[in-house]
Amino acid sequence: MSWYYPKGWTDQEDGIDQVLIHYSCTPPGQWPDWSWRHDARVLQDVGGFPRQRLKVLRMPREVWDMQHGWSTPEYRFHYYFEIHQNGHRWTTDLFTEDIVYRDLEYTDDNGWVTNICIYWSVGDWRAPVYSPMEDPRIPAGSEFLAKNYYTYDDKERFHRQKYQMLYELGLPHRFHSRMWGPRGTTIVQQYHVGRMYPPEEKNETWLGPLGSSAPGGDNCWTHRL
Hints:
By secondary structure, the protein is mainly beta.
């Protein structure tokens, strides 16, 4: 699974035909080998004056640390821009950001919730993410883990079985998940909450500090990473 990070560019001069972002992720304290592997994406021209360009990058939730032999959820994001201008090509300096995470817990005291996600985005709502939340008492190998929901073919079976699993757990149910972003940035966040079983009680909503609302907007929590 991944999360989304919008990266933008503002033209400071005329004659720019295209802008690319080159990027790589490394464990903390390490630097990329650009000759070995990295990703590159073309930024979309979204107009305006001065002209704005944007690309929403799909970011990993962890990277593999070859030196230590394990995965790390906090890592470094390295990038530079390649500019094609008036028939020439030039690149910017290298930028590096520390990617960190924030864990959240949602407490359901009465057992109403059967499905819940953190609904969140870096900076503003341009690139929202759904991070499934789970009660850690659900077995780690269960086919009914929240993260399996989106690829599970028989949704009705999933709803029924997950409801029964949660029903057997003592209250309160405490659901956990995680958000990521560059250190020092702001995350906007709501909860996407649903009761998907029994069928006659199906209901879902997005929750912010002011209660239920449509997804996104001003009814949200903000977190400084």
